[in-house]
Amino acid sequence: MNQDVVVLVSAPDRPGLVADTTSYVRDIGGNIAEAEQHTIPGLAFVQRMVISIPSAQSVEIMRDEIVALTSGVVTCHLIGTRTRIALFVSRAGHAAYDVMSKVALAENPIDVACIVSDQPDHADLARRFDVPFVEVAVDGRSREEHESAVLEALDGFDFDLVVLARYMRILSADFLDRINSPAINVHHALLPAFIGAGAYQRAWDRGVKLIGATAHYATVDLDEGPIIAQASTPVSHRDGPEDLARRGRELECAVLAQALSAHCQFRVLLTGNRTIIFED
């Protein structure tokens, strides 16, 4: 039997890299089902391959050998690996409900370890989809105290990714480090415009002619992490702040779904504060 693997490569560009990586796959008895590569001038060569290799071939050894071959950063992921998420949500629940609906429809290989909220209202969402609910109220706590309580509540849950589905808390560097997983956030604006809270009101105040939403990896810098997906729609002077928010909710759900799909299908490659998204 064979095992199917996604290989992501980011390396200094040089002539012959494609030939070297594809020849290596042939030499270990593998077969390439998909291959896409791109050169970012002055930055890197990036490549995504979907390959079938003999089951006796160690994926870890293969990764190390491709690292040595390319002098780059290489990750290997077994196809069929399911991503376990911790879903964070505050008062606005539309994005979280959309994520859970898509999980129930098995649109992506995702399992939900738990739903985390600073509001009690979303316990019903957890009950509907039969997943654990973790409420950690703010209750006058400082950010450090609240984050410590969240981390304590998360202890014992196994997850690979945190999904911030309109979770309206600014996360510290310590928290992002201690969750030991990436975090994807959805923001209600076309970043880098209108960072932070109240984006629709500020967009209306500015008289924008289109609104948007952005899904990005969360970093210590507020709403400045690597962008995964964005979408926009035109608006006019007839639209008030509430209209912008209503129309924006659909965009938020769409870009978060797109980002989760790309992440769990291993189609995202990070280069600095940029992402390369290999299309489905």
Number of strands: 13
Radius of gyration: 21 Å
Which structural class should the secondary elements be placed in?
Answer: alpha/beta
CATH topology of the largest domain: Rossmann fold
Task: Specify the biggest β-sheet.
Answer: 7 strands, mixed
Sketch the topology as an H/E string, one letter per element.
EHEEHEEHEHEHEHEHEEHEE
CATH superfamily of the largest domain: Formyl transferase, N-terminal domain
The number of distinct structural domains comes to: 2
The stretches of 5 or more residues where confidence is low (pLDDT under 50) are none
Strand content: 25-35%
> How many DSSP helices?
8
CATH class of the largest domain: Alpha Beta
* Oligomer designation: single chain
Task: Measure the end-to-end span.
Answer: 26 Å
